[in-house]
TrEMBL record:
<dbReference type="GO" id="GO:0006396">
    <property type="term" value="P:RNA processing"/>
</dbReference>
<dbReference type="InterPro" id="IPR029028">
    <property type="entry name" value="Alpha/beta_knot_MTases"/>
</dbReference>
<feature type="domain" description="MRM3-like substrate binding">
    <location>
        <begin position="19"/>
        <end position="107"/>
    </location>
</feature>
<dbReference type="GO" id="GO:0008173">
    <property type="term" value="F:RNA methyltransferase activity"/>
</dbReference>
<dbReference type="InterPro" id="IPR029026">
    <property type="entry name" value="tRNA_m1G_MTases_N"/>
</dbReference>
<protein>
    <recommendedName>
        <fullName>RNA 2-O ribose methyltransferase substrate binding domain-containing protein</fullName>
    </recommendedName>
</protein>
<comment type="similarity">
    <text>Belongs to the class IV-like SAM-binding methyltransferase superfamily. RNA methyltransferase TrmH family.</text>
</comment>
<keyword id="KW-0808">Transferase</keyword>
<keyword id="KW-0489">Methyltransferase</keyword>
<feature type="domain" description="tRNA/rRNA methyltransferase SpoU type">
    <location>
        <begin position="128"/>
        <end position="282"/>
    </location>
</feature>
<dbReference type="InterPro" id="IPR053888">
    <property type="entry name" value="MRM3-like_sub_bind"/>
</dbReference>
<dbReference type="Pfam" id="PF22435">
    <property type="entry name" value="MRM3-like_sub_bind"/>
</dbReference>
<dbReference type="GO" id="GO:0003723">
    <property type="term" value="F:RNA binding"/>
</dbReference>
<dbReference type="InterPro" id="IPR029064">
    <property type="entry name" value="Ribosomal_eL30-like_sf"/>
</dbReference>
<dbReference type="InterPro" id="IPR051259">
    <property type="entry name" value="rRNA_Methyltransferase"/>
</dbReference>
<dbReference type="GO" id="GO:0032259">
    <property type="term" value="P:methylation"/>
</dbReference>
<dbReference type="Pfam" id="PF00588">
    <property type="entry name" value="SpoU_methylase"/>
</dbReference>
Length: 290
């Protein structure tokens, strides 16, 4: 059936380079070494293939022979695309290659996009950034990328202790937002750009602290009403906060660092990081756009 809708599809052998590569791309070191990552799931793959700006990054698509005809028809447009190779394997083999317990039968392999985070930080039109330390849960990071996309965040920047931003579970949880929001790990250049921005009187750093005297809404209104050109939202581990030396240096040197608390009307001590970041982004985007 796949050949009916995608006549260019090929079937790789069990010992082929494609099968070997897909197995290897479940490990961070191989993703970094090869500069490739996996996008899996019907919605994520379809939206990625439909994105003309991102499409040149796609190396190939892998389909399960069990895929239903309506989805094959939906993606049949890629058959004429010069960038994308199409491969098909049995449902049994696809399940072995998939990172999901109940795979949807479609994935694609993409080059890791080259995002210039330094230029984004220096761009006067880019106003909101998220800076994270010790995000160990890929679902949390993917969700933060998704909400960042929703609230107009220009980049999600990560300290050295966080999960790899292009791991398959992060990409899946981002629901396609990985294409729209730059994600990058702090290196010397990005750290320098953030430090320079933080030292500016035109930048505010805002980060959660349950002991802060200022509620978040008040802090967001202050940041939105005092003419700050950039706002950097800092988040850390739910249990340990921020411990990364570079991020602590950025906070220490910031011209304006605002601790803010999310009001607690119940009995819990803290919120999941992605939930907290969602509330922070909402309040800050609301203050900037009011």
């Amino acid at each position: 059936m796949i050949k009916k809708y995608l006549p260019g599809a090929e079937t790789p052998g069990l010992n082929s380079k494609i099968i070997s590569e897909l197995k290897s791309l479940r490990l961070k070191k191989n993703m970094i070494e090869r500069g490739l990552f996996i996008i899996e799931g019907k919605k994520a793959v379809y939206e990625t293939l439909s994105d003309g700006g991102f499409l040149p990054n796609i190396k190939y698509v892998l389909l399960s022979e069990a895929l239903e005809s309506d989805y094959l028809e939906k993606i049949s447009f890629i058959n004429s695309n010069k960038y994308v190779k199409i491969y098909t394997v049995s449902a049994e083999l696809f399940k072995k290659l998939s990172g999901d317990e109940t795979p949807e039968g479609v994935l694609c392999v993409s080059a890791i996009p080259q995002r210039d985070a330094v230029s984004l930080i220096g761009d006067a039109e880019k106003r909101i950034f998220i800076l994270l330390d010790s995000v160990n849960d890929p679902g949390n990071l993917g969700t933060i990328m998704r909400l960042a996309d929703n609230f107009g965040v220009s980049a999600v920047l990560l300290g050295k202790n966080s999960v790899f931003e292009y791991s398959p579970k992060v990409i899946k949880a981002s629901m396609g937002s990985f294409k729209n929001v730059a994600a990058a790990r702090l290196d010397e250049k990005i750290f320098g750009a953030l430090l320079e921005a933080a030292r500016s009187q035109e930048t505010a750093l805002i980060f959660p602290d349950i002991r802060a005297g200022i509620p978040l809404r008040e802090a967001a209104r202050r940041a939105g009403g005092e003419g700050f050109r950039k706002i950097i939202i800092v988040g850390g581990s739910e249990s340990h906060g921020v411990s990364d030396d570079q991020i602590l240096k950025i906070i220490e040197d910031a011209a304006c660092a605002i601790k803010a608390r999310i009001p607690n009307y119940g009995g819990n001590e803290s919120l999941n990081l992605s939930v907290a970041m969602g509330i922070f982004c909402y309040e800050i985007a609301l203050a900037l756009n009011s």
